[in-house]
Amino acid sequence: MNDALGMPATVVLLGGTSDIGLAIVGRLVAAGASTVVLAGRDRAGLDAAAGRLGSAAKIVVMPYDARSDTAHASVVEGITEQVGDLDLVICAVGMLGEKDPITQDPRRATEVMHATYVGPASTLLAVAQRMRRQGHGRIVVLSSVAGERVRASNFVYGSAKAGLDGFAQGLGDALAGTGVDVLVVRPGFVRTRMTAHLEDGPFATTPEHVASATVRALERGDDLIWVPGVVRWVMAVLRHLPRALFRRVSA
Amino acid sequence: MTVTTLSGWGRAGSSAAQVVAVPPGSPPRLVDHPRGTLARGMARSYGDAARNAGGVVLDMTGRARLHSFDDTLGHLRVDAGATLDEVLRAVVPHGWFLPVTPGTSMITVGGAIAADVHGKNHVAAGSFRGHVRGFSLLLADGSTRWVTPDDREVFAATLGGMGLTGIVLDAEIALRRITTTWLRATTRTTDDLDATLSALDTSRAEYRIATLDLMRTDRRLGRAIVETAEHADESPDAERPLAYDPAPHLTVPAGMPGGLLNRVSARAVTRLWFARAPRRPRQDLVDMAGFFYPLDAIADWNRLYGPRGFVQYQFAVPVGQEETVRRVAERFATARCPTFVVVLKRLGPGGGMLSFPIDGWTMAVDIPAGVAELSSLLDGCDELVCRAGGRVYLAKDGRLRAERVPVMYSELDRWQQTRDRLDPHGRWRSDLGRRLGLCRS
Ligand SMILES: Cc1cc2nc3c(=O)[nH]c(=O)nc-3n(C[C@H](O)[C@H](O)[C@H](O)COP(=O)(O)OP(=O)(O)OC[C@H]3O[C@@H](n4cnc5c(N)ncnc54)[C@H](O)[C@@H]3O)c2cc1C
Ligand SMILES: NC(=O)c1ccc[n+]([C@@H]2O[C@H](COP(=O)([O-])OP(=O)(O)OC[C@H]3O[C@@H](n4cnc5c(N)ncnc54)[C@H](OP(=O)(O)O)[C@@H]3O)[C@@H](O)[C@H]2O)c1
Q1: Are B309 and B368 found together in one domain?
Q2: Residue of chain B nearest A129, judged by CA positions
Q3: Do B153 and B239 share a domain, yes or no?
Q4: Which of A3, A134, A220 is the closest to B398 by Cβ?
Q5: Of A114, B49, B91, B157, whose Cβ has the fewest other Cβ atoms within 10 Å?
Q6: What are phi and psi of A40, to 5 degrees?
Q7: Does the beta carbon of A92 lie inside 6 Å of ligand 2?
Q8: Residue B7 C-alpha, separation from nearest chain A C-alpha, in angstroms
Q9: Helix A155-174 vs helix A106-113: crossing angle, to nearest 10
Q10: Which CATH superfamily is domain A10-250 in?
Q11: Do B192 and B309 lie in a common domain?
C-alpha cells in the first residue's frame, strides 16, 4: 500500500539501470519502501545497481526488454507473482539515439521509438490494468522537455517523448476514480549515462535533484512537474516561438 | 454494486472498492472475492482502516435499528451500523448515557468495537470493551456467532481487531445513568508541559483532557488548556434536564483549496484559544454535546485541510515515560510543523490484543499531509515511542511501518493466531491490514 503521505511499500523500476530511476528508488527506500523490483535487459548492470541500493529493502531483479513485442502484460504478471500488489511503478526506459536523426538508418530510429514510446506505453497499459484491478497504485513516467516542442537535433526521441507524455496524461485521466494516479515528470538536461557524451545543456541538473523533486511531488499528489522548476517557464516561451525563431534558438 | 474511491477521515490517500450497502435484517450474503471483504462504518478512522482496495466494502450504516432497550438495567441491543448519535438521541431522554465515548458521536457501534474506542474518562471507565455485553459476529464461513466476554479469545481479538476478525452485526451495550445532560466543568490554563501533566494526573474528576500548544520552542511548550468535568445533577433547564438535540450548524464547502491551514494560521488559532481561556480555574455548567463532541458542530470539518488532506498522529506511552511525551512535543515544535488540535489525555490500564490504551499518556496531533519531511518526522517519533514501550493508534494511522507493529503490540502473535483460526482463508482484508501485514494482500 501507499501510505497516507504518498510513500509506497513496493516499488518497480522499469529501466532498472537508469541513473534517474535509481536515484528516485534510493529516496523511496530511505522513506521506508521495503521491496524494490529492478526490471531491465542488462543483467550485470541490474545486479550492480541492486548491490548499490543496500540492504534496507528486499530487491528483486527481473528481465524486461521494452522492444520485445512479446506481451508486456506477462512481464507485469511475472512481477506481481513475485511481489504482490504494485504500489508504485516508475518508467525510466528511454533511448536518446544519435544526434541528427535525419542522417540515420531508419531502423535505428525505429529502435529509439520502440524504447522510448511503444514499449513503455504498452507496458504502462498493462501496469495500469493491474493497478485498476488492485484498486490502488501510482505511476511515475519520466517524460522530457524534449517532447514539449520537438527539436531538429533529436526529433525522433523528442517525438517519441511527446507521444509518451500524451499517453501518460491521457492514462492519468482515464484512471480517475480508480484509486490509481499518474505523475508525469519532465526533466530538462540531466547529467546521466544518457547524456554523458554531451556538453551540459541549459539549467543542467542531477539525478538526485530530479529524485527529490519527484518524491516531493508524490507527497503532494501532483500530476505534472518540471525539473528544475524553471524549465517550465522556459518551455512555456519556447512552445510559442514562431517556427523560424525556434529553429535558430534550438539549433 | 459500484466501484467507488474511498478515503478515511483524513482524506490523505484513497483506494477503490466495490461498495455494497448492507440492509437491516438478515446478515449480508458473503461473496468470494479475490481481494476479500471489509466492513465500513462512518469512516471516522483517519487513515486506511476502512478501505479495501480492489475488494468488497460493506457499508454498514444502513443497518441501524435499535432492537431493544431495558430501561431499568440500561442494556441496549442495537445494530452495528447505528451511530452513537442515534443511540444517544434514543437513550439520553430516559436518563442513560454511553459509559465510554470518543470525541465524536458520528461513529458507528461497529466502529467503536473494531477500534475499542476510549474517551476522556479512560482512567475511570476503561475502553469500550468493558461495556459490551455481547455481539453477533458474522464469521468468514458465513455463520454467525454470539460473542460474550466469556468467549475470551474471540472477544479480545475483535475489540480493537479493526474489522479483521469478522463483521459485527449487532451488539448489546451496558449504558450508565445520568440525571441531566450537563457537566460541571473546570477550565484552567497551565504554563508548561510539566504543569499540564500534573494537572491531568492529580485531578480526580472523571473526565480530563488538555489541549496543548506545540507552536513554540520556549519553556512554555506544552502549556495547555486543561478541562476536567463530572456529570452534573443540576440543569439550567429545570423543565427538561435530559433534553438532547444537538444539530450540526455549519458545513464546509466541497473543494476547499489546500494551504489554508498552515503554520501562520496554526499559530493564530492557538493564540486565539489561549487568549480566550481563563487564567484562573473557572467552573461552568456545560452541555454534553458541547463538551464531548465540540467538532461535531461543523459537519465535514476535515475538508478544511484541502484536497491533500491531513493525518493524525496519536501515540501512547506508559506511566514513567513522560520524557517521551516531551521529546515528541519538542520534535513537532522544532520541526516548525503546523499543528492544530493537539490533545493530551491520561489513560488507565488496558487489555485486549490490539487495543490501543495502556496505563499512561496519549497525545494526538493533526498535521496537514503535504508538510515537507513529515514522513521522517513521524518515523522519528515512532522510534521514540517504540523505545518507550508505547504504540501508535491504528484507528488514526495511515503511515506506520509494518515492522513497528510487533514491537508496539506485544500480543500481535496471539491476535494473528486467533484471526487465522477464525478466518483461515483470509476473507477479511483492509488497506491498513495490507500495509501493516495484519492480513493477506
Ligand atoms: C473527530 C474525531 C474524534 C475522535 N476521537 C476519538 C477518541 O476520543 N477516542 C477514540 O478511541 N477514537 C476516536 N476517534 C476515532 C474513531 O472513534 C474510530 O476510528 C472509530 O473506529 C470510527 O468508527 P466508524 O464507524 O467511523 O468506523 P470506520 O472508520 O468506518 O471503520 C473503522 C474500523 O472499524 C471497522 N468496522 C466498522 N464497522 C464494523 C463492523 N460492523 N464490524 C466489524 N468491523 C467494523 C472497519 O473495518 C475499520 O477497520 C475519533 C475520530 C474523529 C473523526
Ligand atoms: N538524462 C537526461 O537529460 C534526461 C532528460 C529528460 C528525460 N530523461 C528520461 O529519463 C529516463 C531515465 O534516463 P536516464 O537519464 O536515467 O538515462 P539512463 O541511465 O540511460 O536510463 C535509461 C534506461 O532505459 C533503459 N532502456 C533503454 N532501452 C531499453 C529497452 N529496449 N528495454 C529496456 N530498458 C531499456 C536503459 O537500460 P540499459 O541499461 O539496458 O540500457 C536504462 O535503464 C529516460 O526515459 C530518459 O529519456 C532523461
Answers
A1: yes
A2: B54
A3: no
A4: A3
A5: A114
A6: -175, -175
A7: yes
A8: 10
A9: 30
A10: NAD(P)-binding Rossmann-like Domain (3.40.50.720)
A11: yes
Contact A136 B15 (CB under 8 A): yes
Q: Which domain holds residue B163?
A: 62-178
Q: Would residue B429 count as lying in a domain?
A: no
Ligand 1 center from residue B115 Cα (angstroms):
6
Per the CB < 8 A criterion, the answer to whether B65 and B21 are in contact is no
Instruction: State whether residue B375 sits within 8 Å of chain A by CB.
Output: yes
Among B11, B26, B60, the domain boundary falls at B60
Q: Is B370 at the interface with chain A, CB within 8 A? A: yes
Amino acid at B384: L
Taking Cα atoms as reference points, which of B144, B145, B134 lies closest to residue B29?
Answer: B144
In this structure, are B30 and B172 located in the same domain? no
**Chain centroid offset of residue B41 CA:** 13
Find the closest chain A residue to B9 by CA distance. Answer: A4
B377 and B392 belong to one structural domain: yes
Q: Are residues B113 and B168 in the same domain?
A: yes
A117 given a catalytic annotation: no
Q: The domain that contains B66 carries what CATH number? A: 3.30.465.10
Q: Domains in chain B: how many in total?
A: 3
Tell me if B439 sits within 8 A of B55, measured CB to CB.
no
- Tell me how far the alpha carbon of residue A13 lies from the centroid of ligand 2, in angstroms: 11
Q: What is the pTM of this model?
A: 0.96
Longest dimension (CA), chain A: 53
- Residue B133 to residue B376: CA distance in whole angstroms: 42
Overall residue count recorded for chain B in this entry: 441
Judge contact between B81 and B103, C-beta under 8 A: no
Per-residue pLDDT of chain A (251 residues; tens, 9 = 90+): 999 999 999 999 999 999 999 999 999 999 999 999 999 999 999 999 999 998 999 999 999 999 876 779 999 999 999 999 999 999 999 999 988 899 989 999 999 999 999 999 999 999 999 999 999 999 999 999 999 999 999 999 999 999 999 999 999 999 999 999 999 999 999 999 999 999 999 999 999 999 999 999 999 999 999 999 999 999 999 999 999 999 988 87
- Nearest residue in chain A measured CA to CA from B259: A220
Which chain A residues touch B5 with a CB distance below 8 Å? 177-179
Does residue B163 line the site of ligand 1, with CB under 6 A?
A: yes
Q: Which of B53, B375, B399 is closest, CB to CB, to A179? A: B53
- Please tell me if residue A84 touches chain B, with a CB cutoff of 8 Å: yes
Contact B78, B60 (CB under 8 A): no
Beta-ladder partners of A62: A39
ipTM rounded to 2 decimals: 0.94
Whether ligand 2 lies within 6 angstroms of the CB of A209 is answered as no
Residue B112 has, within 13 A of its CA and on its CB side, a CA count of 35
